[in-house]
Amino acid sequence: MMYPLVRELAAAAAPHRVPAAVTCRVLGLACQPYYRWLACPVTDAEPTEAYRASALFDAHRDDPGFGHRFLLDEARAAGEATAERTAWRICRDNGWWSAFGKRRGRGKNAIAGPPLHDDLVRRNFIADGPNRLSLTDITEHATGEGKLYLCAVKDAYSGRIVGCSIGARMKSRLATGALESAVPRRGPAAGCIVHSDRGSRGGFNWSSQHPDLGGVRRGHGGLEFEDQRCSGGAASAVAR
Hints:
Layout: H1 3-10, H2 20-27, H3 31-39, H4 45-62, H5 68-77, H6 84-94, E1 133-143, E2 146-155, E3 161-167, H7 172-186, E4 193-196, H8 203-208, E5 217-220, H9 224-239
Parallel strand pairs: 1-4, 4-5
Antiparallel strand pairs: 1-2, 2-3
């Protein structure tokens, strides 16, 4: 938008005043649209788009893993009616892309990326005391009102579910909410390892970067089957 520059150069208080017609001619702008803009610098559409962008940004800040379609759903839930193409354009212009990027491939020949964290468990799912090792997973359940997601945290020593959270969307705060509910129940959790499978979404990636949740460390398994056998059962136990 070059019109503010034209107005600034044509102002009476400018050190070196340049007529608007001259500036428009140099910049290759038509004078008539400039004068229309000068009469109404802020159009009716600009505040509406600003509210839409604010709703999309709030959703992106809450869960950086969401793409523009999930952000659009969150914006609509917040009361901002937006077309999908408009949401995509706003996200593109502001660089609000999913933190996880695109998948590298699909099917049996797809190559998994490198692990995001070191495997601190090494397939040893037996703990020698409480608050040493916790297993976690997120499961999806179909209900009459739509899908429901459950995240559970299981203490490997006692076999008890020590924390859980439920939500209608698979968001990062679903995982962090389960951890936040587990830490107060178990007392001091410094040095505890939270182990999960790699999964389809990186919800626990956020919590692994915030050790202030009781000083919890995170282990990342290399074999999804072993992880799902242990941590998936924890979530299923809560569901039952």
